[in-house]
Amino acid sequence: MSKKILVLPGDGIGPEIVAEAVKVLEAVDRRFNMGLVIDHGLVGGSAYDATGFPLPEDSLNKALAADAILLGAVGGPKWDKLEDRSKRPEQGLLDIRKNLGLFGNLRPAILYPQLADASTLKPEVVSGLDILIVRELTGGIYFGQPRGVRTLENGEREGYNTYVYNESEIRRIGRVAFESAMKRNKKLCSVDKANVLEVTVLWREIMEEMSKDYPEVELSHMYVDNAAMQLVRAPKQFDVLVTGNMFGDILSDAAAMLTGSIGMLPSASLDKNNKGMYEPCHGSAPDIAGQGLANPLATILSVAMMLRYSLDQGVAADAIEAAVSKVLDQGLRTGDIFSEGMTRVSTSEMGEAVLAAL
Ligand code: NAD
Fold first, then answer.
1. Which residues of the chain have pLDDT under 50?
2. Which of 88, 284, 288, 299 is the pocket-test mutation for ligand 1 (most atoms within 8 Å of CB)?
């Protein structure tokens, strides 16, 4: 049966980078005879402008029916002042993740050797870097109840959130992490704060229990403060890292910057059946939107992840990744990864170059 792909370009640079990624997806669809059915929808601020909702019902229904979703980015200053938080662009993303049960966020941080100079760290620390952060995405303190700001008896205000994970939530993200480690170098580091937070004492216990089912995977544990330090001190010691929502949010951004440009990094958010939403790690970059300056490679590499994880098309995914490596070899660079002696190209020129390399 033909697979359905929903494309949600979103806001800011979203439409520009997604247009290039869709050309690449269509090209591999033809070449590998996949018979994909590609549909489009609105999300984020542009959806709010058109319909009054950041995730219109039509987009949610199409997302529920799709086998995989390709998303650009959402948000921008135009919508930052919306009083009703439920109408903010970011809510559209949170709603898709929640409604589709996309609990497993995979964020690879790979430093292409051609871009070793783009990192702020010394080349010997980062060159050859290839790590995968597995972040729990629909639980933890970002979703825990009760939450809010209340006024105490003495009139002082107090903000509060709840950090909660139940056993099944920990197990299902643990499974994604162990399975990912099995496909890589079989090293898994679980990041917690078990010296202070009971919820992560349970997290650590369950990871230990699960490791019995994966005897080939070498499991280690690290407190999040140390993990942050080790990521910038000696990031190549890691293969796969698994952690909760908030720690993962922070560590994955730090890991992203090890590679020099956030414009190179794809991500996947998966449900329990490997249906997924694929998007670049960066935001909508309103500062450069509409100028042809955005790097489309993170979105193109997100298409490769989609082919590998949701569509079982590993060969096509490899072909896209090889094409990206080839254009970097040719010295083609968008502004964010530009360095002396390279050829500066626009968003669409970069997309065309990847197509040609395919
Ligand atoms: P951002 O990632 O959009 O931009 C940070 C910096 O990186 C900017 O200087 C931008 O120009 C640059 N940049 C980002 N992507 C690039 C690309 N592909 N090519 C070249 N340069 C690129 O983060 P921000 O500025 O903090 O946020 C802007 C908006 O994006 C906000 O409204 C924020 O809420 C939203 N946001 C959305 C997502 C998402 O859709 N998943 C994620 C993060 C931020």
1. none
2. 284
